[in-house]
Amino acid sequence: MSNFVSVILCSNCHSRYVEITEWTNEKKAIIYCRTCNNREEITNFTLGRCKVSNIELQKIRDTKAVPGKAEK
Ligand SMILES: [Zn+2]
Question: How close is the Cα of 3 to the center of ligand 1, in Å?
C-alpha cells in the first residue's frame, strides 16, 4: 500500500530541508529553509515529516510546481 503526500521545497534554493521553526502569537507558522535561511510566514498550514527513498525524492523534485505552472 502506498500513500500520496505533498512535500514543501524551498523555492529559493530547491532544498528539502524546510521546517517550521516557530509560531507567531497569531498562530501563523514561520516556515524556514535550513539551507539558505529563506523564511516565510504561512497561515492555516503545517508540516509533517517522514522518511522517503531517493527515488521518491527525485519524483518530488521532478513534479514540483514552478511560477506559472502547478505541480504535475
Ligand atoms: Zn532555501
Answer: 26
| Mean pLDDT per 10-residue segment, the chain (72 residues) | 89 94 96 97 94 93 90 80
- pTM of this structure: 0.83
So where are the chain's domains? 7-45
Question: What is the whole-number distance in angstroms between the Cα of residue 8 and the centre of ligand 1?
Answer: 11
Distance of CA 22 to CAs 25, 35, 40, 53, 69, Å? 10, 17, 11, 28, 30
* Nearest Cα residue to 19 out of 1, 2, 3, 7: 7
Distance 39 CA to ligand 1 centre (A): 8
